[in-house]
Design brief:
Blueprint: E1 3-10, E2 19-24, H1 52-61, E3 68-72, H2 82-92, E4 95-100, H3 105-113, E5 119-123, H4 131-135, H5 139-142, H6 145-153, E6 158-165, H7 172-180, E7 187-192
Parallel strand pairs: 2-3, 3-4, 4-5, 5-6, 6-7
Antiparallel strand pairs: 1-2
């Protein structure tokens, strides 16, 4: 699996758990507000990647010190050997969380059916009508968003949905449309927009006053 980064310890990426975060390399979205732009390219030099064996050597040394592992990105579900990687992490004994953009519902269903994750976080990027504007994704990607939301919400697995709120681009109408996408009983929160490293250069000058939490 292509691994573009590793955060050895995090107290905030996995609710209630002390975890390491594995960042996969490559994404099928190009979100204008993305703060991990270096993880978007799929074709990168092997020299810029972290060898998988090094990641597992690290995780094995951290048994008993960490509770879980977060697989983030980039977009993990575009990795062809993701399930094999998840199975190996579970074998070591860690709890697993995956972060996803929801563009590949069949992969998510396969992961859930094989009981490979204990927590799922999916980003709802925008109201459906504005998805392409925010993600630069193709229509074929967009049509899978609702399917992924339904799969996650009905999985019986702990999960959350989250949205990066961009004050300069999102109106109260956008907020309400996004909220309508979240099934009853599922957690959803808006998170602060980190403008300094936004992929879209014009957004780097914008500092929103929104600090996170519930809107409206």
């Amino acid at each position: 699996m292509k691994i573009g980064g590793l955060n050895s310890i995090s107290f905030s990426d996995y609710p209630g758990e002390i975890a390491s975060v594995v960042f996969t390399q490559g994404c099928n979205f190009r979100c204008i507000f993305c703060h991990n732009g270096s993880l978007i390219p799929r074709d990168v030099s092997d020299k810029s990647l972290i060898p998988e064996e090094e990641v597992f050597e690290f995780l094995e040394r951290r048994c008993g010190q960490l509770d879980g592992v977060v697989v983030s990105g980039g977009e993990p579900t575009i990795q062809p050997d993701l399930l094999r990687f998840l199975k190996k992490v579970k074998t070591i004994g860690f709890s697993l969380k995956i972060d996803t953009n929801g563009s590949r519902p069949k992969v998510l269903k396969n992961i859930i059916d094989n009981k490979l994750v204990d927590y799922i976080a999916m980003d709802i990027k925008a109201s459906l009508i504005r998805y392409h504007e925010f993600t630069r994704a193709s229509n074929s990607d967009i049509k899978f968003i609702q399917e992924s939301i339904e799969i996650i919400a009905s999985s019986g697995i702990d999960h959350e949905f989250r949205t990066t709120y961009i004050p300069s681009m999102m109106s109260s109408w956008d907020v309400e449309q996004i909220k309508k996408l979240v099934p009853p009983g599922s957690k959803h929160h808006f998170q602060k927009f980190g403008h300094k490293h936004a992929l879209e250069s014009s957004l780097r000058k914008i500092s929103g006053i929104y600090k996170g939490g519930d809107l409206l």
